[in-house]
Design brief:
2 copies of one chain form a homodimer. Chain A is built from 13 helices and 10 strands. A 5-stranded antiparallel beta sheet of chain A has the order 7-3-10-9-8, sandwiched between helices. In chain A, helix 2 packs across helix 3, helix 6 packs antiparallel against helix 13 and helix 8 runs antiparallel to helix 9. The longest helix of chain A has 21 residues. The first copy, chain A, is elongated and about 90 Å long. Chains A and B meet through strand 4, strand 5, strand 6, helix 10 and helix 11 of A and strand 4, strand 5, strand 6, helix 10 and helix 11 of B. Chain A binds a DNA duplex through helix 2 and helix 3.
DNA sequence: CTCTGGCACTCGACTAGTCCGAGTGCCAGT
DNA sequence: ACTGGCACTCGGACTAGTCGAGTGCCAGAG
């Protein structure tokens, strides 16, 4: 049904439309790509491609543009991933060098990805469910306040302000030690379980404080930072606004909705490699004029979260896919090392 | 030069233009605001106002719109701050309730401000220079890594991953204790000084680790989070994009430049109250079509950082000013309490 | 001196009409 | 199966022409 030449033409249409941003006609196609046939032949092939739903015309007597289905075929069968340039590899190295804690890593990653792809980048914070609690402390502050801190094996810190009432130093230290023995070494979920169980064993005068600390601690251990995402590169969207294209308003709005982004990333990503969602393949309606290129990332052994790029359906898929893959791998390695 | 009526007319023009978003003509003015004079009279007054530079016409035979100078006069002399509605006050309360650490407070504040004003909100992270170090710890992680943590009197936590080499638990604990005695109770700046001084006193076998820890610690204590800002409400900008107005692209770009925003906030804010910068009063060129309403905030005794709102010069100044003031005060109180 | 009604004028927004050319589909010929 | 040729379509750009909101100015009234 689709012979070699028709596929070549589709590929040429996609490539040309992505770089020129204009509907592409038969003549231009023959000129720019050395298909050794006449425009008329190309037209016939294009008619078939259109019938099959791979391309359309914005209006009669205009060139063709790819449909989502066309992009899909292009991504699946027609192009290989472009390897990154040396400059890009260097950019990755230098961007990430010196990141000193998890927040920092995520921030840098998201900027990096936005910069390389020239699109909107989204990075989910690493999940801590695979970690274990390493450290626990209660630090008294001013005016009866205190700060509870936990550190886990990945080096992630959580913190929370509580009202310590009039508890004295000794009580606090005592409680600290008790709780530490219970939760250190446990995974967050286990730790929560243990905390809920061991309510009875606390000495009387420690009770009120213990209640406050434990409930705060449970909250801290339960809410996983992977419910958060970082976004960067929103200005890159602006490039498309003057175009008679995608209305970017709903897109920008979606980008402030953490929940939506999380869901998108989560749904998009499969087990292994980079996943591409094109236009209407996207479950979230306001983003059906955009494509998402996403991947999971994590230490070598374990997926910890997702990251991805959002852009117009008309994007340079080969490069974007390469960039997402490279960044995901690099961050994974970086997380394992540090 | 400008009598009562002319001022009333200017006020009416600003009010009308802000709400209608269209150049306002003499007739509409007489109709909508019960000035007891004829359109012709209003026209004469408008001619004067225009001569003085308070208003202009986008083109001949269109209504007038206020100039920056016009807005300035309006803000300075013609309008009082609108008190917040009960609903808004409630919104503030409920938005902030349950914020449990400094990051959280800042995040909530910036969202809140964006929501109330329907503009882009910017909140600088609180400065820690007025704080003292409360807690210091070194937590060993996997694979020779360790995490350094500090907590200060405001409850802010900093953290940093280091390479601990092959240092054993005992050495680490020992070093921890030594450093703790040096820096706890000191302000960040003092602590840095002390750390730099006391290099000589460390036992031989502790040296390599100490060097790493101290240099990381110095970095941590030196870089003040008030070099960071949170931004929210970018989608609110989109409302203006379809208008033949402000090109929002440079604005969105500026919003990703932390440095620029910091500078703007810093320069805008005066000692005490809310400050308004209108259009060209703004030193940063791409933002000269926007206005900024900014204020400092902090505990009752001390300014710790700035916050503000960015929007089109044509904004509802009375409401925005009220909102910024209210939020700044509320956050200040909140910070003092928690 | 201040305000008003009247009037000529300006200029952008909108509509309608025209032209041009890119790009198409189809067909007959190689 | 491919190609050249041709009639056709339709959007974009340009031109005129009309409409009306809004102006500035002036002479006259209070």
């Amino acid at each position: 049904m689709l012979d070699e030449r028709k596929l070549a033409i589709l590929r040429a249409i996609v490539t040309d439309y992505v770089s020129m941003r204009e509907p592409v006609g038969s003549k231009a196609l023959v000129d720019r790509y050395h298909l050794n046939v006449s425009p008329a032949t190309v037209r016939n092939d294009m008619a078939v491609l259109e019938e099959e739903g791979y391309i359309t015309q914005p209006h009669t007597s205009a060139g063709r543009i790819p449909t989502d289905k066309g992009y899909r075929l292009f991504v699946d069968r027609l192009e290989q991933v472009k390897p990154l340039s040396a400059a890009e590899k260097r950019a990755i190295e230098s961007f990430m060098a010196g990141a000193a804690n998890i927040d920092d890593i995520v921030q840098r990653t998201v900027r990096l990805l936005a910069q390389i792809t020239q699109q909107v980048a989204i990075v989910q914070y690493p999940s801590l469910t695979v970690s274990t609690v390493r450290h626990f402390d209660i630090v008294p502050l001013d005016r009866g306040r205190a700060l509870i801190i936990t550190v886990n094996s990945l080096g992630a810190v959580t913190q929370r302000n509580i009202d310590a009432g009039d508890a004295d130093e000794q009580t606090i230290a005592d409680l600290r030690a008790r709780i530490a023995t219970v939760i250190i070494g446990a995974s967050p979920t286990d730790a929560v379980g243990k905390l809920q169980d061991c309510g009875g064993t606390v000495p009387e005068q420690m009770r009120p404080l213990a209640a406050v600390v434990v409930s705060a601690l449970i909250e801290m251990l339960s809410d996983d930072p992977s419910a958060k995402v970082a976004v960067s590169g929103v200005p890159n969207l602006m490039k498309y606004s003057d175009q008679y294209e995608t209305n970017i308003k709903p897109v920008v709005e979606a980008l402030e909705e953490q929940v939506v982004l999380l869901k998108l990333l989560g749904e998009a990503v499969s087990n292994d490699d980079v996943v591409v969602r094109i236009g209407h393949e996207n479950p979230y309606e306001p983003l059906q004029t955009t494509s998402m290129v996403a991947s999971s990332y994590g230490s070598t052994t374990e997926t910890v979260a997702h990251l991805g790029v959002l852009g117009p359906t008309r994007m340079d898929y080969p490069s974007t896919i390469a960039a997402v893959r490279a960044v995901a791998r690099y961050v994974g390695r970086f997380l394992s090392e540090s």
